[in-house]
Amino acid sequence: MSEHKGTQRTNTAAANDDADVAALRERVRGRTLLPGDDGFAARCAGFQTAYRHRPSVLVRAADPEDVVAAVAYAAARDLPVAVQATGHGLSVPTDGGLLIDTAGLSGVTVDAPARTARIGAGTRFAAVVEAAARHGLAPLNGSAPGAGAVGYVLGGGLGLLAREFGYAADRVGSIDIVTADARPRHVTARSEPELFWALRGAGANFGVVTGMDIDLVPVSRLYGGELVFDLARTPDLLADYLRWTETLPDELTSSVSLLDHPDLPLFPATVRGRFTAHVRIAYTGDGRTGERLVAPLRALGPRLSDTVAEMPYTECGAIYNDPPMPHAYQGDNILLRAFGPEQAAEVTRLAGAGTGLPCVVDVRHLGGALGRPAAVPNAVGHRAARYLLRVLTPLMGAEPDAAAGVRDKVLGALAAESVGGRFQNLVYGGCANGAPKAPAQDFWEPADHRRLSALKAEIDPANLFRFNRNIEPAGWNTPR
User: Fold this and answer.
1) Which CA distances in Å does 175 have to 155, 193, 207, 477?
2) Which of 76, 286, 289, 308 is most buried, by the most CB atoms less than 10 A from its CB?
3) From edge to edge, which strands make up the β-sheet containing 208-215?
4) Other C-beta atoms lying within 10 Å of the C-beta of residue 197
5) Nearest by Cα to 138 from 21, 299, 282
6) Could you write out the DSSP letters of every residue in 14-75?
7) What separation in angstroms does the CA of 8 have from each of 83, 208, 275, 299, 457?
8) Rounded-to-integer distance, Cα 232 and Cα 230, Å
9) Residue 470: Cβ-neighbour burial (10 angstroms; 0-12, 13-18, 19+)
10) The pTM is what?
11) In the β-sheet with 81-84, what is the strand arrangement from edge to edge?
12) Hey, CA dihedral for 327, 397, 433, 158, is it positive or negative?
């Protein structure tokens, strides 16, 4: 492996050979940029500002053929390849190598009778939501409509309607991908069943996805929104929320976030300087039943705000109100088999005042369709988990080591209840490979990871696509 890495460094240094780059520019319809070129730095930047790709060559793809050309260029020179559409989930930035910017490969085509949508690699979920809504349909999007749809689906996709309809990766019809041999493939359950299984849940490990067909669901409205509590007045809110989830129907997907807001003008006056709990609700049933289901939460105490009401699905982004502006953050999570009241009290204590660093502690209720196998099996595992505990730390000038200390304390409080894995969509900024206690392979079940590693050795034996939550090819560490 060390010999291979040495070759990689040599070739990365040579990536800017004038004749080679000129030939690539001739072949690519989009733009091929080098460090110092106008627009290079802007296109390397993404939504995640704490980390940034620093490639030797950047290709802004205008069509799938540009992706083929870029991968062929990289493979011929043993250059590692990174892919970016929006940069929301950046965990492992490239230093050298080639970056393929797929933001230009956007577009949505809805087939209403089939309840499917064809989406390009650069498409944001906001566009899919709008296009689907014209036909009374909805995608299985997450909380942030501005996030890229394809990367989200490849990582599993834990969305607003997840307990009713499962992971977004469970509802994919086909995937178009360019693999390490620079070969474009249209992958379905029939054409390449093993690769189709792997792609839905393995992230960007097997190539550059240029488009996919996804299922839509017959949802046009929600009973949804957010309940915000002051934890000074409802200190047991997390434990009460966990008890509330025990009898919910699958049609109701929810989460709760704890946040100790600094007394700063950038926060709304209603929460500034307060330790708050934000309960997010998305229920696809009728409003009257929704009112009845949410009533026990409202009975817990006064709310700082309460926006839970009937809404068109096009307003689903208001449930979480995720910040739309790029910023710096880290985040990690664990998947849990159980979450008791004593643990809830400890997590609330650790997330509150005195951590020295603001963090968002997020608990997501799983189960329902998330606990059942996909109709067409895929690589998304750990389906026995009942809850997900995430810690998101906005850096805001803070040192990553300080963020890691807060994160490890909170996640450590539930370590005994872990099912042995993490969910990759909710791992951000430097946490992809973590410490030995949180290796990259724990995103998958052990048997599935071995299966993925074997397929990686077949599809991408040189691990060209490794700037991600990486699956190393089987035998990758074997001396050569």
Assistant:
1) 14, 12, 11, 30
2) 308
3) 108-111, 116-120, 208-215, 172-178, 184-187
4) 21
5) 282
6) TTT-HHHHHHHHHH-SSEEE-TTSTTHHHHH--SB-SS--B-SEEEE-SSHHHHHHHHHHHH
7) 18, 20, 49, 61, 18
8) 5
9) buried
10) 0.93
11) 31-33, 57-60, 98-101, 81-84
12) negative
CB 465 within 8 A of CB 452: no
Q: Which residues contact 192 (CB under 8 A, 6 or more apart)?
A: 185
For 418-428, the pLDDT digits (tens) are: 999 999 999 88
Helices 287-298, 237-245: axis angle to 10 degrees equals 140
Structure tokens at 122: 């650069």
Tokens read off for 360 = 């968002």
Q: What is the pLDDT of residues 305-358, one digit of tens each?
A: 999 999 999 999 999 999 888 888 888 999 999 999 999 999 999 988 655 667
Report d(CA 356, CA 347) in Å as an integer: 15
Task: Determine the residue type at 315.
Answer: E
Q: Which residue has the tokens 């620079």?
A: 182
Phi first, then psi, for residue 110 (nearest 5°) are -100, 130
> Taking phi first (over 0 means left), then psi (-120 to 50 degrees means alpha), and beta for anything else, what does residue 39 get?
left
Are 477 and 461 in contact, with CB atoms under 8 Å apart? Answer: no
Q: Which residue has the tokens 């989200």?
A: 152
The Cα–Cα gap between 145 and 316 comes to: 8
CA–CA–CA angle 169, 392, 386 (5° rounding): 50
